[in-house]
Design brief:
The protein is of the alpha/beta class and about 400 residues long. Helix content is about 50%, strand content about 5%.
């Protein structure tokens, strides 16, 4: 009896320590670290809903995307334009390379209760829409348990939509049995009613540990940025500090910002005729040589499961009452012509996105006519100096609109 009592007491003390530690780290994320997390694009930030507490401010707008969100010294990137958090308007960034529509549907539902401003921007990448869609390994690497837990607990997302998302998750987690089992456990508890008390207990204890680990990882990589995963730390990003004076977004000279983007792009694209940033072009040629010519003749964005994943994202947004602005980013027309990627297929992709936006009644920032605009992109696919200048203004207009 004494041993059982001692074991129970030890368990209670351990759980109490975990709870107390979790409360401490959560307080750090929602307190002293909140502002620097607004524009942070570390992988660890994506693990925890608590890292997005800035969304509780009505002057903040959620911007979802993937690799283009990372700051690459573009003076027109929203982090620099809006004072790195010291502004009367901020864009809270969510996404890293490989984060696609299904992951973002889960993330949106996970964060919706924190969003004082019921609007969000979703930047689409044409490269998601190759025939296979998101690869299982990529999806698994961007599947965050704490986000998924908050998604499943969100009662405004219908069971029907949750079933569709869970079905797709299980398809994509076929090579990750541990995560697939976690999804199946949530399905039993929240959807099928096939409740095993042991499953519920394991899930609860597991989430306690997982939540602590997620918040700790965010705190650790904010305190020691060089420890960020996937080499996402750069000295330049670390050097960016909040503006000394408050930026008033309504006073920004957007025409001057576009001109600034034009000049910066021109100074950094000097060694090729594709309007690709010099450093990126050198890496591209080293990686692919000149074998890239006509290498994409048989490629297409016309048909892809990513379209249905995007529709699921928009269905989640509709059920949550969140107004969405999709952003259709073009490819680099010069480079894609060089690789032989069919122009008609590209046009069909852009039209597919227009159709989906119209069918779902959401706004679309359509930049598909800028494939050949110098400095709109910084490489073959990512928003560049002028691209961000245009989008910054359109995001702010979307935020202001009734």
């Amino acid at each position: 009896m004494k041993r059982a009592t001692a074991a129970l007491l030890a368990l209670v003390l351990a759980l109490g320590c975990i709870w107390g530690s979790g409360r401490y780290f959560r307080g750090q994320l929602e307190g002293s670290l909140q502002r620097q997390l607004i524009y942070d694009t570390s992988l660890e930030k994506n693990y925890s809903p608590n890292a997005f507490s800035a969304l509780r401010d009505e002057s903040s707008l959620l911007v979802l995307g993937s690799s283009e969100l990372t700051l690459h010294e573009e003076s027109t990137h929203p982090q620099l334009v809006f004072g790195s958090g010291n502004s009367d308007f901020n864009t809270v960034l969510l996404g890293v390379p490989g984060t696609q529509s299904l992951n973002q549907a889960i993330n949106l539902a996970a964060l919706s209760d924190q969003m004082a401003n019921k609007k969000a921007v979703f930047i689409l990448s044409p490269q998601w829409f190759y025939k296979p869609g998101v690869y299982p390994e990529t999806f698994a690497s961007r599947f965050y348990l704490q986000m998924f837990d908050a998604f499943m607990k969100n009662e405004r997302v219908t069971d029907e939509t949750k079933r569709k998302i869970l079905r797709r998750c299980k398809e994509l987690l076929v090579k990750d049995p541990e995560r697939k089992k976690q999804v199946e456990t949530y399905e039993k508890i929240y959807l099928t009613g096939d409740l095993d008390p042991l499953d519920y207990l394991q899930l609860g204890v597991g989430n306690l540990f997982s939540g602590l680990q997620s918040d700790y990882n965010v705190w650790r990589t904010q305190t020691y940025p060089h420890q960020q995963a996937e080499h996402r730390y750069t000295p330049f990003i670390a050097s960016v500090k909040p503006s000394e004076t408050t930026v008033h977004a309504g006073e920004i000279d957007w025409a001057a910002l576009r001109q600034q983007g034009e000049e910066q792009g021109k100074s950094l694209c000097t060694n090729n005729s594709f309007y690709i940033e010099d450093k990126y072009y050198q890496q591209l040629i080293r990686a692919r040589g000149y074998t890239a010519r006509n290498s994409e003749r048989d490629s297409s964005f016309k048909v892809s499961p990513e379209y249905d994943d995007l529709r699921l994202f928009l269905q989640v947004a509709k059920e949550l009452g969140i107004e969405i602005m999709l952003v259709s980013v073009p490819v680099n027309g010069y480079w894609y012509d060089y690789t032989g990627f069919p122009q008609e297929d590209r046009k069909q992709y852009y039209q597919n996105i227009r159709n989906i936006a119209e069918q779902n009644g959401v706004q679309l920032a359509d930049y598909s006519d800028r494939e050949y605009e110098p400095y709109f992109l910084r490489d073959i696919m990512h928003l560049g100096w002028k691209g961000w200048a245009y989008l910054d203004e359109q995001i702010y207009q979307f935020y202001q609109a009734d």
